[in-house]
């Protein structure tokens, strides 16, 4: 098993023996329980479901009474594991390369300059008014409609983001905390999936 679910705690600075500083993100990873095993015959695909952060059964809705976890995540693929197995930070070692998947920060409704890095429509002289941060023309003579995929203002952020080739710098096995070099997607307290790159 090379996956684990974690909660982003925030960023810190650590130093090596030579005094060089490294920016790291601390993640509280696991322990996770395998709550369900998916098979090609019963579900149409192979995979497992992991549960993270156990909670009281009274706080879980009726269909999920058998899985009293705050977070449930699925991972596709064939794994040699059985129901109820625990996954902890011991599957990782300092120096391992990982890819981390999470939900990026939501920015709400954003204009074209913030969302797509537009420079603004036209010049700021020669009678131009109220046009500093607009997107400019969005259509043409033909086909007399706005084409799909046009870069326009809209909801920004809150997307699934994967960051690859990050290195594990340190592991605290007693507190289940992993220090990963670099920035991870999402806000403090956000849930991420950490996958070891074989």
Structural class: mainly beta
Spatial extent as radius of gyration? 23 Å
How many strand elements?
Answer: 12
Strand order of the largest sheet: 1-2-11-10-7-12
Shape: extended
Rounded to the nearest angstrom, the distance between the terminal CA atoms is: 11 Å
Q: What is the overall pLDDT average?
A: 89
Remind me, CATH topology? Elongation Factor Tu (Ef-tu), domain 3
Counted up, domains total 1
What is the assigned CATH homologous superfamily? Translation factors
Named at the architecture level, the CATH assignment is Beta Barrel
Question: How is this structure best described in words?
Answer:
- With 198 residues, this protein is mostly beta strands.
- It has one domain: Elongation Factor Tu (Ef-tu), domain 3.
- Helices cover 5% and strands 44% of the residues.
- The chain is built from 2 helices and 12 strands.
- It has helices at 40-43, 112-116, and strands at 3-15, 21-29, 32-38, 47-54, 69-76, 86-87, 97-103, 106-110, 154-157, 160-172, 177-181, 191-196.
- The strands form 3 sheets. A 6-stranded antiparallel barrel has the order 1-2-11-10-7-12.
- A hairpin with a 5-residue loop joins strand 1 (3-15) and strand 2.
- The longest helix has 5 residues, at 112-116.
- The protein is extended and about 70 Å long.
- The mean pLDDT is 89.
